[in-house]
Amino acid sequence: MTAPFDPAAYRALSIDGYELAEGRFTAQYTLRGRAPGVDVTFAEVVDFGPDFPRPVDDRLLRLLALTCSPSYYKAAAPAHIEIAFPTHPFERDYLRELIAGGLGEFAYRNQLPDALTPEVSGPDAAGGPVRPPDAFDAARPPLVPVGGGKDSVVTIELLKGHGVEPMLFSVNDFEPIDRCIEISGCDSTRVRRTVSRTLIEVNAMGALNGHVPVTAINSVIGLIVADALGLGPVVFSNERSSNVGNVVWHGRDVNHQWSKSIVFETLLRDTLRRHELNPDRYFSLLRALSESEIANRFRAFEQYFGAFISCNRPFALDPQRRAASWCGHCPKCLFVFLLMAPRLGRVRLEKIFGRNVFADADNLPGIEDIVGVGAHKPFECVGEYYEAAEAMLAVLDDPDWGGLALVEALRPQRDRLASVAASDDPSVPPVHYVPPRYAAVLDPGR
C-alpha cells in the first residue's frame, strides 16, 4: 500500500481460514473494502516447530484463528465480521465477547464505542462428526506460561515445592523469560508468533491501533501445545487484581487486563466445555491471591531477584526497541517498585532496578494514579488501589525511604492514602477454578 489507510473505506473483516502444515499454523484475514481494489489481506503465523506432534485438535486450531482476529479487526473496526468457515453459534458468541472485552481499551482510547459490537456472521457448523471422549489427563505435568515477572515465578516455585515438575512455555524470544526459565531448572518449550507484516505497514499509514487481548491468544496457543504434547492443564498466573477494570465508559467496564481476568477465564472454559473438552484444561493458579499476597511469596525466591522484569520495554516486538532492564518510569515499574519496597528494602530494591524510582519527581503523577489519589488506574498490569496505598503507607513509616521526592510529596496525603488502603472488602471471596489437587499447592501449611 502506498496511499493513506482510511478505516472508513472498509465494510467488514473476513476470517478467511487457517491451516497447520509442518508445525506452522497460518490464519488468514481480509479487510473487505467498500469499493473494488482496496481489500487488504493479512496472515498471522504461529510456528510450533517442525517436530510438533500431529494431529492437532481442530477445535483448538479454529479457536486460535478466532482469537487472533481482533488484531486485524481493529485496523478499521468495521461493522461486520464474516467468518468464512463453519462455526457453532457458541464460537461466534465467544468472538463477540472477546471483541467486547478484549478491545475495550482500544475503543476507549479511539472513542469508538460501536467497535465493541460488530455483527458476527458465517456458515453454521450444524451437527458434525462424533467426538471421541476427551483424552485429557489432569494428573499429567502442567504447562506453565512464563512471562518473566514475579507471578509466573511464584507459580513455578510453588509447584516445584509440592513435587510437581511443570513444563514451562513461552511465546517468542525474550531475555528475561529465558533467564527465569534457566534459573527454574525446568524443561521448557517455545512457540514463535509473528503478526502480519501488512498490519505493521497499515498501522504506519493511518490504521486504527491499540491494545489487543494478547493473553487470550497465548492462552489458546498454550492449550494447543499442552494437547499436542500430552500434558495436563495449562496453568496461568493471573491474580485477583486483573479482575478490576480501569474506567467505566458507555456503561462498560474497560479493563486493560480483561484477557487475564476471571471473565475471560470463564469464557474460555465455557467454550472448551461446549466443545466437549474438559474445562480444567485451563485455569489460573493465583486467581484468588492479591498482588500483595503474591509479592509476599515472591520475596522467598531470591534466586530470581536479578532476573525477573515486569517492565514492558524489554518485551517490545521490535528487538531494536527493547530496553535492557527496568525503565523506571512506566506504570508497571512504578507499581512493582512500590509493592516490593516494604518487602525487600531500599538497598536491595535499588540494586534490582538499577535506580530509585521514588527519587524522580516526574514519576509522581504515575504513582498517584496507582495508589488511588490520581486520575484512574493506569492502563497497565498493575494491582488494586488499596494494596498500593498499603505499600505507600509502609514506605512513609520507614525512615530508610525518607527524603525522597515522591515519598515527601505524598506524605501530606497520608490520611487519604489510609482511606484508600481500608477500601478492600475481604468478605467477598474471589471466584476461581483451581482444582483441589492444585489448591493444596497454595496452602502454606502443606
From TrEMBL:
InterPro entries: MurL, MurL_C, MurL_N. It comes from the Bacteria. Keywords: Cell cycle, Cell division, Cell shape, Cell wall biogenesis/degradation, Isomerase, Peptidoglycan synthesis. Its EC number is 5.1.1.23. One of its GO terms (biological process) is cell division. Residues 6-285 form the MurL N-terminal domain. Belongs to the MurL family. This is UDP-N-acetyl-alpha-D-muramoyl-L-alanyl-L-glutamate epimerase. It comes from Mycolicibacterium grossiae.
